[in-house]
Amino acid sequence: MKKIILSALVVSMALAVNAQQIPERKTDKPEMRHKMDRNKGSRMDMQKLNLTEDQKAQFKTQRESFRKQMEDLKKNENITVKEQKEKMAAIQKENKAKMQSFLTADQKAQIEKNKVEGKKKFEARTKERGEKMKTQLGLTDAQSAQLKKNREATQQKMKAIKEDSKMSEEQKRTQMKELMKAQQESMKSVLTEYQLKKMKESQHRQPGNRGGDRKKPVKNNDTI
Question: Chain-centre distance of CA 156, in angstroms?
Answer without folding.
Answer: 15
